[in-house]
Amino acid sequence: MKIATYNVNGINARLPVLLNWLEKSEPDIVCLQELKAPQEKFPEAILKERGYEAIWHGQKSWNGVAILSRVGKPLEVRRGLPGDPEDLHSRYIEAAVNGIIIGCLYLPNGNPAPGPKFDYKLLWFERLKRHAADLLKSNTPVVLAGDYNVMPTELDVYKPERWLDDALFRPEVRQAFHELVAQGWTDALRKLHPEETIYTFWDYFRNAYVRNAGLRIDHFLLSPKLKKRLLDCQVDKDVRGWEKSSDHAPVWILLK
């Protein structure tokens, strides 16, 4: 089973790129972030024509997450991360698909730091850790995939010394990620590529993609039952170079 995550940076603006990638890569399940579309503007019919059923949590202009599947309709478990009923951001959706719980997330950026946006990011991370711990207690196969907006180590960022004060690389954020993983999750890419420089995001500015001046901020965390089933994890880096592409590239895992 091939599961992918992709921050599309505007699903309707990038729809030709998304459809082209789906045709070439043929993932079974896809987590999408940054839909930047209200609920009624999600391209459900077009995706269904391509064989993908979907659930999504839209929001006008910002955020938005979705789960696509061509191996059975995603059965929605929850939308929105528990812990703050006043948080209306569309950043989390969870579904059961083909025997696996899929959590698709778009963690807050948090800049500028320090400040209210950074505080919100840290609080969101705490809520994620609590929910992730509950998911592990369920003893079911779980994938937590998406744009975490954190580079866990210096290996995950081009010229780390330039990012020390950024909300994606501040020590508090990296610590939160490491605490999350320490619950018992497996960082799929690092499990299979422990020492490689691999990025998932390249800014539109300063010719970053051509220079490979990137960041690794899109991650797959696997529960213990899925760790044993992990066969491969790769980044479809070439998609970032396509015309009118997102500034992220798709990341995927292959499970037994």
UniProtKB/TrEMBL annotation:
InterPro entries registered for this protein in UniProt: AP_endonuc_1, AP_endonuclease_F1_BS, AP_endonuclease_F1_CS, Endo/exonu/phosph_ase_sf, Endo/exonuclease/phosphatase, ExoIII-like
Gene3D superfamilies linked to this entry: Endonuclease/exonuclease/phosphatase (3.60.10.10)
PROSITE patterns: AP_NUCLEASE_F1_1, AP_NUCLEASE_F1_3, AP_NUCLEASE_F1_4
Domain of life assignment: Bacteria
Listed Pfam families: Exo_endo_phos
Cofactor(s) it depends on: Mg(2+); Mn(2+)
Swiss-Prot/TrEMBL keywords: Hydrolase, Magnesium, Metal-binding
Endonuclease/exonuclease/phosphatase domain segment(s): 4-248
Family stated for the protein in its record: Belongs to the DNA repair enzymes AP/ExoA family.
Protein name, UniProt field: Exodeoxyribonuclease III
